[in-house]
Design brief:
The structure is a single chain. By secondary structure, the chain is of the alpha/beta class. The chain has one domain: Alpha-Beta Barrel (TIM Barrel). It has nine helices and ten strands. The strands form two sheets. An eight-stranded parallel beta barrel has the order 1-2-3-4-5-6-7-10, surrounded by five helices. Strands 8-9 form a two-stranded antiparallel sheet. Helix 3 crosses helix 4, helix 4 crosses helix 5 and helix 8 crosses helix 9.
Length: 288
């Protein structure tokens, strides 16, 4: 497991690596463009080469994940918004190809008040087309927090999206500890977490799991409210997160913290350090 945090690319793509190193990250997650606007970044071969050189030379950061911006709604009936979503998702995958990212994490969108089946089909069509337009970077569908209307709210919907999008090997899964917890899965001990992952394996295939997000929950179990808390400061607590961080089936995956941070400025070095410590504690407990 490569524990890290979401970091900024301000001033240049490769700057994200230094910001990850400052926080003690073993992996980093970045946005491919501003999360508040549709305008794509203009990264080119030189930017990609610099990024690859920096990460190859880093003694800490070993992996990068891209998070597609939240503006994307692959399921919308609005053709213009769907076109923008396709363009942005394709852009993210192209950057992923360029920098050797482990995957692009995607919230597939919302059906809003529309029926589920056609919404899934629209989302899958956008996903399939974005993959068709790009080379090799994986697309990791993030299971959402269970809020009604958001796609990928459970393993059934995630499996349906993957199937409708063609079931190709580039299609994968990202699991978020907070999302699972507020969705109603009590994953705060090893046995319950193992059972949830057995369900994921049966429905989606655990081999599709390409990344995890490590966040405590600021909302109760089963609340379906996506509210992240700092590590060990929420409803899951240190014991729950240590079980998540020490799960054997997460070995080799980027594990990104997306917490508010102690100063509300994003994940701090202290939190990354705390997550590594909780992982060690969990592994010791599993070894007994």
């Amino acid at each position: 497991m490569f524990i890290g945090a979401h970091v900024s690319t301000a001033g240049g793509l490769a700057n994200a690596i230094g910001r990850g190193e400052e926080r003690g990250c073993e992996s980093i997650q970045i946005f491919h463009q501003s999360p508040r606007m549709w305008r794509p970044t203009r990264y080119g071969p030189d930017d990609f080469a610099e990024f690859r050189e920096r990460i190859d030379g880093s003694k800490q950061v070993e992996a990068v994940i891209i998070h597609a911006v939240y503006l994307i709604n692959c399921a919308t009936k609005d053709r213009e918004l769907r076109k923008k979503s396709l363009t942005s998702l394709t852009h993210a995958l192209e950057i992923g190809d360029g920098i050797g990212a482990k995957g692009v994490v995607l919230h597939p969108g919302s059906q809003k008040t529309d029926p589920l089946k056609p919404s899934l089909k629209r989302a899958a069509k956008v996903i399939a087309e974005a993959l068709e337009r790009t080379d090799s970077c994986r697309l990791l569908i993030e299971q959402t927090a269970g809020h009604q209307g958001l796609l990928a709210r459970d393993f059934d919907q995630t499996a349906a999206l993957i199937e409708l999008a063609g079931s190709g090997p580039r299609l994968g899964l990202c699991l978020d500890s907070c999302h699972l917890f507020v969705q109603g899965y009590d994953i705060t001990d090893e046995a319950h977490l193992g059972a949830v992952l057995d369900e994921a394996d049966a429905m989606v295939g655990i081999e599709r799991l390409g990344a995890v997000h490590v966040n405590d929950a600021a909302a109760p179990l089963g609340s379906c409210r996506d509210r992240h808390a700092n590590i060990g400061k929420g409803e899951m607590g240190r014991r729950g997160l240590s079980a998540f961080l020490s799960e054997p089936r997460f070995e080799g995956l980027p594990a990104t913290l997306e917490t508010p941070g102690p100063e509300k400025k994003g994940t701090s070095k202290a939190e990354v350090t705390a997550a590594k410590r909780l992982r060690r504690e969990g592994r010791k407990r599993r070894a007994k």
